[in-house]
From TrEMBL:
Belongs to the CREG family. It comes from Pocillopora meandrina. Keywords: Glycoprotein, Membrane, Secreted, Signal, Transmembrane, Transmembrane helix. Its main location: secreted. The chain crosses the membrane at residues 37-60. This is CREG-like beta-barrel domain-containing protein.
Length: 292
């Protein structure tokens, strides 16, 4: 029966049963096969254990942080819904997370300082001197975009380009001073609501363009000063006007009958993007302490 045996060997067990019901199938490899199966099972188990350990290591490594960020997110949304205009939103955890992220980036790019441009005096400090960077941008800008909440277009966040000065060329104070006509919409707006922001960008100079940074590139630094836009008091008027005229001498010649007003932004917060990893809230006292 050599031929039928040969056939049997060629066929699989399932096929055998139907055409040859009486043939006993001898499987000489059973023992060896089961060894293979066991070895395969062992390898598979070992592999699963290794992969499992690896996955749980990367998943649960920051489990507490994940939980925090989850509840933080829910809490954040709930609080944002309740926030009223001008109310402060201090999120300590969010800030700490931000700082950790910043340190991580700082380690990845130690002491990033963009090269100065040829034939340009614009040469900002290292990107890890946050307060100094913010002050540098403020002092080296002649104008920015100021926003107030509109009265005539009720509730609209009205932004407009405006000239300012934070001191004479050699004496930066960090406080932006403005010179505006009494007809200017922001004068009306701040009577109703003095909350205001001043947005500045390094893209206002040729700095970002020469470095080939889009104005939204984190390396093309932006600072937004947040605070209250108020009239300068009589004791500060002379200093403020000196600061303004030092940087914008033509203003001295503008028609007197426009009812010029001297304003300043009383800064409560400083928002800065000067590097990868998101914005920094520069502490206001550090901002004023920074020396250029
Ligand atoms: C700079 O301005 C401040 C006022 O903010 C003044 O006290 C100080 O004397 C000035 N410094 C110089 C060198 O003019
Ligand atoms: C700014 O507005 C707030 C709230 O209306 C008010 O309490 C504060 O006195 C104002 N500040 C100035 C300097 O006008």
């Amino acid at each position: 029966m050599g031929t039928s045996e040969d056939k049997v060997k060629l066929l699989s067990k399932d096929q055998i049963e139907a055409p040859f019901p009486d043939v006993e199938v001898e499987d000489e490899n059973t023992e060896e096969d089961s060894n293979h199966i066991w070895r395969f099972v062992c390898y598979a188990l070992a592999y699963m254990v290794v992969v499992g350990v690896f996955l749980s290591a990367i998943t649960f490594q920051n489990s507490s942080t994940d939980e925090q960020s989850f509840s933080r997110d829910a809490g954040y949304k709930a609080r944002v819904r309740q926030i009223r205009p001008g109310e402060r939103f201090d999120d300590r955890l969010m800030h700490d997370m931000r700082m950790r992220e910043e340190h991580r980036h700082a380690k990845m790019f130690p002491m990033f300082k963009p090269p100065p441009l040829p034939e340009s005096s614009y040469d900002p400090p290292s990107r890890f001197e946050k307060a100094k960077t913010a002050r540098y941008i403020v002092h080296n800008s002649d104008w920015g975009s100021i926003s107030t909440i509109s009265v005539s277009m009720v509730g609209v966040p009205f932004g407009m380009a405006i000239s300012f000065s934070d001191g004479t060329v050699t004496n930066s104070t960090g406080v932006p001073y403005f010179y505006v006509a009494k007809f200017d919409p922001i004068v009306k707006n701040i009577e109703a609501n003095n909350l205001s922001t001043l947005a500045l960008s390094e893209a206002q100079s040729d700095y970002c363009k020469v470095h080939k940074w889009d104005p939204e590139d984190p390396l093309c630094s932006r600072v937004t000063l947040i605070g209250k836009l108020v009239h300068v008091g009589p004791e500060e008027e002379k200093f403020a006007l000196n600061a303004i005229f030092a940087r914008h001498p033509v203003m001295k010649t503008w028609p007197k009958d426009h009812g010029w007003q001297t304003l300043k932004l009383v800064i409560t917060d400083v928002w800065l993007v000067d590097f990868y990893g998101g914005a920094t809230m520069v502490p206001v006292k550090d901002y004023f302490k920074a020396e250029l």
